[in-house]
Amino acid sequence: PGGLMANPVFIPVSGVIENVTSDPSDCCRFTVTLRSQDIITNIIITADTYVIKEIRLRRGLYVTAFYDSSVPVPLIYPAQYEAVVIGQHRPNEFMAFGYFDENLTAADNSLQLNLGITTSITTCNGQTYACSPAGKLLIVYYSVTTFSLPPQTTPHKIIVMC
């Protein structure tokens, strides 16, 4: 994603897509309405939003979107955020997005990665990534973490944002 400040903190918003509405004044912009239990959140998708695997966002998909916490947001209900990244995943699976240092610890110290032999590491265009993902902006898919601080996980998939 272009134009990001150094090591921003990305906040996840997860839920099931209830509605997708196009912007009549900008055909490259649309709103995805997410529901998580009784909480409704509107996620703005722009031409700059990275949609993982270029999936078609549609009603019923369980997704997580990440927005840059340094970007101002309107104080409206339902809450509205502009997505930097959005992707589908299983409900029992988690996603993380952010910068991971040379020890594979997230910039906000929320997660530490332990690479396993089954961890798939690819670039954002689906190519095998043969280098270390340390020191990069990563999208991480994982299922369980330890109770340590920071929590540790062996992710099953990492996408490196080259």
Description:
The chain has no helices and 13 strands. It has strands at residues 10-23, 26-36, 39-45, 50-51, 62-68, 79-82, 85-88, 94-100, 112-113, 120-123, 136-142, 152-153, 157-160. Strands 4-7-5-1-2-3-6 form a seven-stranded mixed beta sheet, with no helix packed on it. Strands 8-11-13-10 form a four-stranded mixed beta sheet, with no helix packed on it. It has a two-stranded parallel sheet with strand order 9-12.
Short description:
The chain has strands spanning 10-23, 26-36, 39-45, 50-51, 62-68, 79-82, 85-88, 94-100, 112-113, 120-123, 136-142, 152-153, 157-160.
Low-confidence stretches: none
Order of secondary-structure elements: EEEEEEEEEEEEE
Strand portion, in percent?
A: over 45%
Total helical segments: 0
Choose one word for the global shape: globular
Distance between the termini: 9 Å
Q: How many individual β-strands?
A: 13
Strand order of the largest sheet: 4-7-5-1-2-3-6
List the helices and strands and how they pair.
Layout: E1 10-23, E2 26-36, E3 39-45, E4 50-51, E5 62-68, E6 79-82, E7 85-88, E8 94-100, E9 112-113, E10 120-123, E11 136-142, E12 152-153, E13 157-160
Parallel strand pairs: 3-6, 4-7, 9-12, 10-13
Antiparallel strand pairs: 1-2, 1-5, 2-3, 5-7, 8-11, 11-13
Q: What are its keywords?
A:
mainly beta, 162 residues, globular
